[in-house]
Amino acid sequence: MEEHPDILVHLGDFEVQVLYLGIRKGIISREVALRAAKLALEVKHYRKLLERLMIRLYEAYPEKELLEAVCSILIKGERKNGDAFLWYEKALKEGVNLTRLYEYFLFALPDDYAHLLPKEVLLYFSYDKDLDRHSRSVLYRNILLYMNPSSELYQAYTRSMESFAMEQLFKSRINSRMAVIYEHMIYKDMIDGPVAKVLPGILKSFRIRCGDPRMKYVIVRYVELEAEEAYLLEDQAAYVPLYSDQIVIIFQDAYGNRYLDVKHIKTPVMDKPELLEQCYRVYPDHPMLKLQECGKLVSRGVENDSQAELLEETMVQMRLNPIFERQLLQAVTDYYCRGADDKDGVGVFNCTYLVQLDKKSLDARQRQQICETLISQNHMQEAYHMIQEYGSQYIQPARLMKLCTKTILQQLFDQDDLLLNISYRVFRAGIYDSVILDYLCEHFNGTVSQMYEVLIQGVKEHVETYDLEERLLGQMLFTGCCHQIDSVFDLYMKRKSTKESVVKAYFTQKSIQYFLERQEVDGRVFEYLKQALGGSAWKDNLPTIYTLALTLYFSTKDKLQEEDRQLCKNMTDVLLEAGLVFPYTRDLSKHIPIPEDIMDKVMVEYRGRKDSHPELQVRIGPEEDAWHSEDIRRIYQGIYVKQKVLFEGETMEYRIYDAPEGSRVLAAEGSVECDQKLEGKENSRFACLNEMGAALKSRDDGRLAAAMEEYLKKSAVLGSLFPIE
User: Fold this and answer.
1) pTM summary value
2) Mean of pLDDT over the chain
3) What is the sign, positive or negative, of the torsion defined by CA atoms of 174, 179, 181, 183?
């Protein structure tokens, strides 16, 4: 090959291997090297070994032809790294004329290339504009940074740079090279509507460089927005428009895992506040600029209608984060509510927005604010509908009073449960008028204490109370809450036409209180009972409790008038016939005759539940030491009575067990003795027997003989009157 270089006509794998071995051994001549370089220009495809061969040949023989061959192989291999750039740069300096050399010089131009491109490159591309986007951005950046703007060559590039800048701007492309181009080629006068729509995204862009090579995406979430944006990390960097400081930056790896604690550097790409201001002036409807302005308005408050409209439009047009949307809504409602408060409250303020606003997304305080504003401007129907939907717990009583008064009059005092509830709240707050009080008296039904409060206030203020006294009296009687029943009954009797059933129920309750509950009652109750029971047909029409209460009352009196004594006798006869005998029955003997079988016995009374089954244990001293059980009979309701015959000197001890809560307990205990001191008992034969016992005990023979004689007389009289065959 050295002797006959012409035999080298092809650079196949074998020839390349032979030549590479020869250059390593230093046995390849200059002539063979140039022959190989010529053949290398004809090779159609890149081979790594061929590149290494050409570089070794050039190092051995630094000829222009070999330099051209090296660059040709690199271009065919589309080599664009820093090492390739050094060869392209050397080729330009040596004046190598190679197809696409200028293009690949530009492709491989490093980022830290800090001076103007060679003039021949600039001249070449001033005529040949067929470059890809990347190469054009590299070329134009270099020109804008390092070429004199007044030069003729700069002027030749101006139109193409402007065109390229606008083309990339409308595609929202941004990186460090495009930032330089935009800064030099975009002016305020160029900003029209279409430009203003896209330019803010460029001006607010940041370069985010991630320190973790595993991350593939940077995710940006605005606290104001519901959606998120994802940007691909290229060479661990991404250019991201950030319109707000209120953002969350998240990094995502290839598997979809997200991280918040990844180290990164955030650098603004451009600093042109004047362009941003011009964009907002030209196109104030830009979504992100509107969002930024909305944030400022939320902080300082809405001051005019246009600002309020801006917030309203933003809420309609953008998918906002619910929290931020509520903040905007709060700012708008605050503005309108302040405007309404500044008026004189006669409906002159336009409440259309507040009326039409969807209240579902508002919180309770916002609804309260709107409702109070509607009330102040006399939009009563709309305000009342809001209260029906969302309640009124936070609305001021003064506003509620106005609403209640107007609504009651509009509804012509028709009953409305919600309106009644609100009216009572106003009444309890002490802020009401005669309309509200009149409405409550006519329709309100609450607890006994609530209705009593309304009634007393209505009486004090001379308001028509309708049937409130009767309703309240009936509720007291039904529920048993009778603390103020006497005063209510007095009002009922004095102010209204009464119903017999209500009056009868009242006195029944008072009789129950007196007889069953042992409460003190007014003397007028007994006067009524005497009048009622003094009629001819009282046995059939009046409750038994009347008779029990009145006879108990008579038993407490020392003396009775003849009319009362006769009434007492009649009632007692009825009770005795019904088997209603109580300990107090014996006390009636001072007024009327009582049968001996009742007077001869002592009685034990126990008050428990109507459905209970008390157990009575007794022992009679001094004879008995052991306790034994005896029956105790229920006489009336929960009253149980045990009657027992005791003789002189005997004492009956008793214990009563009950199970009020399911477990057996000692409910009562005590003792009773034979008692001969009650009036009327001395006429009975049993009294004579007791008298004989007492005489024997005292060894009084005279007393004993008299008692025996009296006993024989009474027995003879009874035998004569009631002979036994």
Assistant:
1) 0.53
2) 85
3) positive
